[in-house]
Automatic annotation (TrEMBL):
<protein>
    <submittedName>
        <fullName>Paraslipin</fullName>
    </submittedName>
</protein>
<dbReference type="InterPro" id="IPR001972">
    <property type="entry name" value="Stomatin_HflK_fam"/>
</dbReference>
<dbReference type="GO" id="GO:0005886">
    <property type="term" value="C:plasma membrane"/>
</dbReference>
<feature type="domain" description="Band 7">
    <location>
        <begin position="28"/>
        <end position="186"/>
    </location>
</feature>
<comment type="similarity">
    <text>Belongs to the band 7/mec-2 family.</text>
</comment>
<dbReference type="Pfam" id="PF01145">
    <property type="entry name" value="Band_7"/>
</dbReference>
<dbReference type="GO" id="GO:0098552">
    <property type="term" value="C:side of membrane"/>
</dbReference>
<dbReference type="InterPro" id="IPR050710">
    <property type="entry name" value="Band7/mec-2_domain"/>
</dbReference>
<dbReference type="InterPro" id="IPR036013">
    <property type="entry name" value="Band_7/SPFH_dom_sf"/>
</dbReference>
<dbReference type="InterPro" id="IPR001107">
    <property type="entry name" value="Band_7"/>
</dbReference>
Length: 295
């Protein structure tokens, strides 16, 4: 190397080193945090600050970014845990939990494996809540159960700087023996409902038949009452005629009645010959004479 170049480098070496140190300090002092993350900064091994999204400045060589925490919502793997209901039925519950970290300093320094801790906590809460419910309630009222699980989980993980955004019960599985027993119970319930429906149908038919008989009896009673009224009217009319016309009116009514009876007798089937008593002929003659006399 020529002496001139070596002398120039020796004179500017301090400046070059100073420039490199300044450049390194600036690069370590400026931290650009993505929108989906937060940085936990330590100073001499202790928590110093939490950097949010954007440009942040720290003290170079004293402060260092110890943890880069994603604040995006996370989903735990689907977990299965056994639980016993209040009516002593063993069920296997599939759950899924969504959460996100809102306070990274708590998550970093208070819990080692947050996913495992949440999974264990969910299992305990699910067993506790299902233990207070019967099987029918677990299968038909999942929404209140899910809400209670979410609230209990949120209270327990608050010290870890975590927000539980959603907790779901994906399925409630039963063993084969319980499934068979439930199917038998369901079939028995269907048969009972069919028998009840059939019995109600027969009862309704009897009620309708009784209503029909009652209506027919009422109509017959009305008809008899009308006939009785008509007969009473006719009797009254005859009585008036007898009172006004004397014995002749009575004889006329008797004769007409005999004529009507003979007419009915003559209408009988298979009757070729009708024997008329002499008194009937005399009654017919008397009725004819009375009729002519009335004219």
């Amino acid at each position: 190397m020529p002496p001139e170049i070596a002398e120039m480098i020796g004179q500017n070496l301090a400046l070059v080193v100073l420039a490199l140190v300044i450049l390194l300090a600036v690069s370590r002092a400026v931290r650009i945090v993505p929108q989906s993350e937060k940085y936990v900064v330590e100073r001499f091994g202790r928590l110093h600050a939490v950097l949010g999204p954007g440009i942040n400045f720290i003290v170079p060589f004293l402060d260092q970014v110890a943890h880069r925490i994603s604040v995006l919502e996370r989903q735990l793997p689907t977990s299965r845990q056994d639980a016993i209901t209040a009516d002593n039925v063993l069920v296997q519950v599939e759950t899924s939990v969504f959460y996100r970290i809102i306070e990274p300093e708590k998550t970093v320094y208070r819990i080692r494996d947050v996913d495992a801790a949440i999974t264990t906590t969910v299992a305990g809460i699910v067993r506790s809540e299902i233990g207070t419910m019967e099987l029918d309630q677990v299968q038909s009222n999942r929404a209140p159960l899910i809400e209670r699980i979410r609230e209990s989980l949120a209270n327990m993980v608050d010290d870890w700087g975590i927000e539980v955004t959603r907790a779901e019960i994906l399925d409630v599985n039963l063993d084969e023996a319980t499934r068979a027993a439930m199917l038998q119970q369901l079939n028995a319930e269907r048969a009972r409902r069919a028998q009840v429906t059939e019995a109600e149908g027969r009862c309704r038919a009897v009620e309708l038949a009784a209503d029909g008989d009652l209506y027919a009896a009422e109509q017959q009673a009305k008809a008899k009452r009308l006939l009785a009224d008509a007969e009473a009217y006719a009797t009254a009319a005859i009585a008036t005629a007898i009172r006004d016309g004397g014995i002749e009116a009575a004889q006329y009514q008797v004769a007409m009645r005999q004529v009507e009876v003979l007419t009915e007798v003559g209408k009988g089937q298979g009757k070729q010959t009708v024997i008329i008593p002499a008194s009937a002929l005399e009654a017919l003659g008397d009725a004819f004479r009375m009729f002519r006399g009335a004219k």
